Amino acid sequence: MAEINSFIWDEKHECMGEDERRELVGKRLVDCVRRTYDNAPYYKKKLDKAGVSPDDIKSLDDITKLPFTDKLDFRDNYPFGTLAVPREKLVRFHASSGTTGKMKVVGYTANDVDLWSEALCRCFAMSGMQKGDLVHIAYGYGLFTGGLGPHYACQKFGSVAIPVSGGNTARQIQILTEWQPQVICCTPTYMLHIIDTIEKNGVDKSLVKLRSGIFGAEAWTKEMKDQIVTRIGL
Hints:
By secondary structure, this protein is of the alpha/beta class. It has 10 helices and 6 strands; from the N terminus they run αααααββαβαβαβαβα. The strands form 2 sheets. It has a 4-stranded parallel sheet with strand order 4-3-5-6.
């Protein structure tokens, strides 16, 4: 476990005092604004239009001076106009579905992917995941971030990814009952659909050995959570 301790517990940062944390976040904000202004032409134009210079951002208190980045920025600068680094420094692209217009395209550096994996490892630890656990990943793979995010985090954590992806609910249930993973990652509505299908087909729920679920990628309610917990025994 020693090699993954830093992904679960970082005493320096997690026990940092509020004033020290605020100062650190402020320094990172100043750096982020300057880097973005110097390297992302669309955001330089946005700041100039708002009458804001990077020199105006001196601490976290100045965050209210910054204009929002919204989906229109991604649409108007599709596909690669929002990048703040040269493409040769990227390792991956992801994008939204584009159902409401053009896809929102985001590029990731190797450092971005490492930070993403670390954040997910912390989520894994908080959910009770253990090294060696089988992790049933029923988020979609591909341009959607859902599948590949936890997939690579499993490698860092020391758990075992089952890259099922989305759909084919019969196969999902086969793996859940025969492979008996301890953890599942998917949207809460798809988890409820899996449970509905299990109940409709009379599948023995005792064959499902899930200990915890990591559900996201959409808004959900406490009532949905309670349903999942009570109907499948998480």
